[in-house]
Every structure is written in structure tokens, then in C-alpha cells.
């Protein structure tokens, strides 16, 4: 998930996200959102950026759809 967001052009790092996971084995959406908050991409956890990146049920939105569309073009 972090790699996909970075590939979308968001300037975050795995280290920046992982610091919010407190050394745990799992990274969750809220850890990613915290890193995006820190880097100024959003001012809220569950606002428009969250919906854009983590859209559920709507296959025309979200990072997976964006990456799939790019692959089709290449």
C-alpha cells in the first residue's frame, strides 16, 4: 500500500509511515494518513484524500484503479 501511494507521486517514505506503527509488524491506513498529514497533503485523517486513496466498493476510484489505468496505457 505504501509503495503504491509513493508511486502515485506522494512524497512519503516507508520510514515515515512505519514510525507510526510503533515497530509493529502491520501498517494500516491510519499510519499512512498520519505520514500524509505530516507532509502537508491533508489536514484531516478521514477527509477527501482518504476517500480518494482508499475508496471501497467503487472500482473507478482509489489507488488500485489509478495504478491499473497506468498499466493499461503502457
Automatic annotation (TrEMBL):
Protein name: Uncharacterized protein
Organism: Paenibacillus glacialis
Gene3D superfamilies listed in its UniProt record: 1.10.150.650
Classification lineage: Bacteria, Bacillati, Bacillota, Bacilli, Bacillales
Source species, domain of life: Bacteria
Amino acid at each position: 500500500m505504501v509503495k503504491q501511494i509513493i508511486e502515485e507521486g506522494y512524497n512519503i517514505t516507508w520510514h515515515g509511515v512505519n514510525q507510526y506503527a510503533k515497530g509493529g509488524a502491520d501498517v494500516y491506513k491510519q499510519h499512512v494518513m498520519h505520514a500524509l498529514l505530516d507532509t502537508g497533503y491533508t489536514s484531516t485523517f478521514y477527509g477527501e484524500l482518504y476517500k480518494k486513496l482508499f475508496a471501497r466498493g467503487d472500482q473507478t476510484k482509489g489507488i488500485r484503479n489509478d495504478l491499473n489505468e497506468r498499466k493499461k496505457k503502457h
